[in-house]
Specification:
The protein has about 170 residues and is of the alpha+beta class. About 30% of the residues lie in helices and about 25% in strands. The protein has three helices and eight strands; from the N terminus they run αβββαβββαββ. The strands form two sheets. It has a four-stranded mixed sheet with strand order 1-2-8-5.
Length: about 170
Amino acid sequence: MRMKVVSTGVLFCIAFLSTAESTAQKRTVVGKICGDPTQVCRTRVNFQPYELPFDFGKNYVISQSELFYAVIVKSVKLKSNDSNCEKAITEKERLDAQKLFPRNMVFVMRCWETGQNSYTNVVDGVSFMGIYAGQTQKEANAFLSRMKSSGKFTDAAIRRMRIQINGT
């Protein structure tokens, strides 16, 4: 009798954990980055021009991109009372940088606002401009080397990150 109760309890736990895991997998989607703005990306229309788009799947609640490398070319510490985040890094600055790197998406994290992309591995309260540098460290190093040899953004640094959207 005792063995039957223990067996039933173990089976219940396994069923519960697999259901919880299945639910978590449905809520979080890992999507492919659209890092080249010259290529077709079916989800690009769902993002602001300054956001790095990625495939977030269907019927998502919480979605995140695959890991990628970016080169951070500018960062600005935001004042806690600054409500106009567009002043930190302007769209003109982003577009000027995009002209220099037409096959690598230049993106900006202006503020931490609901419904917009947020990026992992960055400091809270900082706006930044980054350039998509690839899926691997090797690609990112090569991109950074080409960038620095051009004399542009000589203080740039590589950062590994992912994009997150909370669609709730």
